[in-house]
Amino acid sequence: MLDNQIKRGDLQPKNPYAFNGQTLVGNADEQVPTPGQKLFYIESYGCQMNFSDSEIVASILKSVNYHVTPDFQEADLILINTCSIREKAEETVRKRLKVFDQVKKARPDALVGVLGCMAERLKAQFLEEEKLVDLVVGPDAYRDLPGLIATAEDGDKGINVFLSREETYADINPVRLDSNGVTAFISIMRGCDNMCSFCVVPFTRGRERSRDPYSIVAEASDLASRGYREITLLGQNVDSYKWQNPEGSEKVNFAGLLQKVAEVDQEVRIRFSTSHPKDITDEVLETISSYSNICNYIHLPVQSGNSRVLKLMNRTYDRDWYRSKIERIYSIIPDCAISSDIIAGFCSETEEEHQDTLEMMEFANYSMSYMFIYSERPGTLAAKKYKDDIAEDIKKRRLSEIIRLQNHLSLKHNQGEIGQVREVLIEGNSKRSDDHFKGRTSQNKMVVFPKSEGLSPGDYVMVRIDEATSATLIGTITQSVESGVSI
Ligand code: SAH
Ligand code: SF4
Ligand code: F3S
Prior knowledge:
Shape: globular
Largest sheet: 7 strands, mixed
Structural class: alpha/beta
Bound molecules: S-adenosyl-L-homocysteine, iron/sulfur cluster, FE3-S4 cluster
Number of helices: 14
Number of strands: 22
Low-confidence stretches: 1-19
Distance between the termini: 37 Å
CATH class of the largest domain: Alpha Beta
Number of domains: 3
Mean pLDDT: 92
Strand content: 15-25%
CATH architecture of the largest domain: Alpha-Beta Horseshoe
Radius of gyration: 22 Å
C-alpha cells in the first residue's frame, strides 16, 4: 500500500519548494477505512505550507466521513494541492491532471478537485481549461469543501476562491499525513504582505494574518504528548508574526511565540521557516541562542547578492544590509547554519551582478541553498514592469555556477563537521539500509549512522561524524542522550 508514496530522500535535504508532488498517506493507525466511509486521495505540490494545508484538508474531510487512501485509482475524491511559484510547477500539475482525467473517464462518479495556489491564481478559468475538474478551491476556502463536494455530487462545478483576512484554521486539528511520528509542521500564519516583484504568493495566499499563539501552543503540546520530537513553525515570513488579543492588552511577536513554543517541552526541538531578512530581529536571534531546543539553523533567502537587482526585486534590503545581518547571526549564534534561496537570471541582471550573488554565497557560507531560474509569473510586479530579458541558456549557465558553488560550500561545511560529536534526533530508517538510522543535527544536517540496540525514532543520540559528502554526514553513535551511557 505504501508503494505509491514518494519517499523523501535521505541524501538530499527536502526542498520545501519542490514541484515533484508527494502522495500523502494516513498514519499506520488509521490505514483501514470503516464501513460507509468514502475515500479521498490527496497529492501535494509546492512549499511546506501546502503540505501543512493538506493536513487541514484531511481533517475537514475526516469530519464528513472521508478516509485517506494512497491509491487514486480507488478514490471517490481525488485532490491535488497545487503550486504556482514557477511555470514548471504549474506544468507539472497540468500533466498530473491528464492522468486523473483517465480515472474520470473510467469512473465518471469520481470527483477531481484542484486546491491551493494554482486554483487561486486561475480561479474559474481553471474550470474552462480543465473540463474534467469538478472543484476549484483556494487556500482560504477549505472549510467550504464539504459544501462544494455536495455541489459537485449534484453534477455542478464547485468553486470557492475567496481570500480571507482572518482565516488561520486555528481551531482545526490537522490529521498528520505521511508522518514519521517524530517531526511535524505547525502553521503559525498565512498570506504575505511583502511584494517581492517576482513572487506570485501575495496573489495566491492573500493578506498576512497571524494565528492565536495559544492555539499554536496547544497544538505543540498535543504533538509533544503524542511523542513528536520536532516542530517546524511555518509561515511565508515568520518573523513578521504579530498577534494581539481583542482587548489589545497582550501582544506577541515572533520572538515571544518562539519562547512560548520552546517552553512546551524541553525534549521537543523547534525549527521555523521562512525568515525574510528584513524582519529577523536581534530579539529573535537572542531567543534562539538562549533556548537549547530551538535549532541553530536559519533559512534566510537572499535571492540576489546585488543591490540594484535586490531593489528591482523589491526585497527592501541591499547587499550591505544583508551582509551585516549575516554577521549579526554568526556573532549571536556562532554555531548557526544559514541557508538561502537564490534566483538566477532575474530581469536585466548583468554578469557582474551575477558575480555579486556568488560572492555573497561565499560570504554567508550557506550550508545549503534552494536555487532557481527566474520564471516570470503573470500579474506580478516584475511581469508588469520589467522585461524577462535574460536568455534561457544564460540563465541556465548562471544557475549551474550557483549550484556548483553551493555544492562546494556544502561539502566544505560538512567536512568541517568531521570529528565533531553532534546531538541527532532519530527520524527513522535510512533509505538505503535498514541497518542504519537517519536523523538531523540542530544545524539541519542529515546524518546516517549504524543502528544500536534499544534506540528508536524519536530518541536523541550523540553521533560522532566520521565522513561527509555535500549532502550527508555519516557517523557513529557515541552515546544515547537519555541514558548518558556510552555505547
Ligand atoms: N516566503 C519565502 C519564499 C517563498 S517562495 C521568502 O520570502 O523567503 C520560495 C522561493 O521561490 C523564493 O525564495 C524564491 O527564491 C523562489 N521564487 C519565487 N518566485 C520565483 C519566480 N518567479 N521565479 C523563480 N523563483 C522564484
Ligand atoms: Fe514571496 Fe517575498 Fe512574500 Fe516570500 S516574502 S512569499 S518571496 S512576496
Ligand atoms: Fe507554491 Fe503557493 Fe507555496 S505558490 S511555494 S504552494 S505558497
